[in-house]
Amino acid sequence: MSSAFPIAASAGGSRRCAKRRGRVAGEVSELKARQAERIKALIIGKMPDQLKHPFYLWTREAAGRLIERETGIKLSSASVGNWLARWGLSPQKPLRRAYERDDARITAWLGSDYPAIKRRAQARRALIYWADECGMHSSAQLR
Prior knowledge:
Elements: H1 6-10, H2 33-45, H3 60-71, H4 77-86, H5 103-111, H6 113-123
């Protein structure tokens, strides 16, 4: 038992101390206006992987790591969520599957076309990369 509760400890009580509440040591609650604008611009203008982060989409964790890397300030997950909400950014989740989706065609493609693509890539010692329009820019400089 902690020395903060000598009576409970000496009386043989089995009470446990409540966890300390509030901010963890080293956490800061606020970003300065200039810092906040810079982080917001980075999040809106770039994907995490473009900023050398190991994430594909922006999450609280990814935004928190960006804030810490750019400013040296470590925010709690709740604080990061508050900042994202202030900036008008909210969690997005698809409401339903694409209406154009055709499961029979997908199964047929996976059974016939894809194995041929895979064999051709293996013969050329090439890698197959999968992408969708989510992380692509029309201004990309591909060579």
